[in-house]
Amino acid sequence: MKYKVEPTSSEKVMRENDFIVSKTDLKGRITYGNEIFIEFSGYSEAELLGAQHNIIRHPDMPRGVFKFLWDNIAAGNEVFAYVKNMSRDGSFYWVFANVTPDYDAAGNIIGYLSVRRAPKRSALPVIEGLYKAMLEAEQKAGAKDACDASLALLVGVLNEKGMSYEELIHAL
Question: Fewest CB atoms less than 10 Å from the CB: which of 40, 73, 119, 155?
Answer without folding.
Answer: 155
